[in-house]
Amino acid sequence: MPLTRRERIAAKLEASFQPKRLEIEDESASHAGHAGSRPGGETHFRVEIVSDAFAGKSRLDRQRLIHRALDAEFQSSLHALRLKARTPEEDQAG
């Protein structure tokens, strides 16, 4: 059975960033009728990722790294990510 987009996103982010914490939620249902929406969903996701790989990087640089890791997904109908990318220290601080 093929992997879901959520599973593919998780595998790519785990391989690229070895996260301490990773949460992925498919929010496609709440975007029905909006730009990029498709029947069956899997177009809009919320991702929270905590990784040492983000140390010393700006918020924009972190987002660019994540988008680069998920480029193939964006090329195959992933439309949007709502991202929160933190270091473990930032995550502990709240």
Descriptive overview:
The protein contains 4 helices and 3 strands. By secondary structure, the protein is of the alpha+beta class. The chain has one domain: GMP Synthetase, Chain A, domain 3 (2-Layer Sandwich). A 3-stranded mixed sheet has the order 1-2-3. It is globular and about 35 Å long. The relative contact order is 0.23. The mean pLDDT is 90.
Task: Please describe the structure with a list of short key phrases separated by commas or semicolons.
three-stranded mixed sheet; 94 residues; single chain; 21% strand; alpha+beta; 4 helices; GMP Synthetase, Chain A, domain 3
Please sum up the structure shown:
The protein is α+β, with helices and mostly antiparallel strands and 94 residues long. The protein has helices spanning 5-17, 59-69, 71-75, 88-93; strands at 21-26, 44-50, 80-86. Helices cover 37% and strands 21% of the residues.
Q: Average pLDDT value? A: 90
Report the sheet-strand fraction.
15-25%
List low-pLDDT spans: none
The side-by-side strand order for the widest beta sheet comes to: 1-2-3
**Ends apart, CA distance between termini:** 38 Å
Percentage of residues assigned to helices: 25-40%
- The CATH homologous superfamily corresponds to BolA-like
Structural class, judged by helices and strands? Answer: alpha+beta
What's the CATH class label?
Answer: Alpha Beta
CATH topology, what is it called? GMP Synthetase, Chain A, domain 3
Question: Major β-sheet, in short?
Answer: 3 strands, mixed
Task: Evaluate the radius of gyration.
Answer: 13 Å
Overall geometric form: globular
Number of helices: 4
Instruction: Return the CATH architecture.
Output: 2-Layer Sandwich
Q: What is the number of domains?
A: 1
Q: How many strand units?
A: 3
What's the order of the H and E elements? HEEHHEH
